[in-house]
Fold:
Amino acid sequence: MIFLILSFVQKYKKKLLLPTTVIMFVLFFFYQIYFKSAPPKADSIQPIPTNETFIEQEAPSEYEDIAVFVEVKGAVNKPGVYELSEGDRVLSAIELAGGYLAQSDTKSINHAQKVEDEMVIYVPLEGEVIEQIASISTPGNSNGGGLVNINKADASILTTLPGIGPAKADAIISFREENGPFKETADLMKVTGIGKKTYEKLEALLTAK
Structure:
């Protein structure tokens, strides 16, 4: 059988050359069309690069720092107004003010107390009279920062202030009852019997909140 096929090809090879070539070309053509139209395999698909850059944004902090401003006065190396964060302690304010002078009296200073905005921290010298009331923090009569609130303090608290006796304490209470709350501590000089010199001694110890 094979011998007959070989003899046939040998005899008619010139006549078979053209049809064979055409058949090969047609087969090649259909082969190319089939494989180009076939769906790509999963492992042959490459990710398309993009120019977008995704930046992971930092999540906002649950608690943001709230700035508070505190004035440190008296027997410290650098008196002044300092910025702290809500929740900081009096100790931090004293450190910002350069620490205490050698002759300061720190017995009345509560270093663990949290600072508040507009708070005044007064550090007395040894033997200074105002040391006796520097740490007053009576509920309802003080703003929590060691200051006497002249809008809320009663006579017993007012008389602890230097230069304020029972008569002047009554005059302060009568003034605010007749004219309304003090808008600022300097309004205390409107009270009969309290002049500029007296007020200057009291200024660091008062609040009008």
In short: The chain is about 35% helix and 10% strand. The CA atoms of residues 2 and 8 lie 10 Å apart.
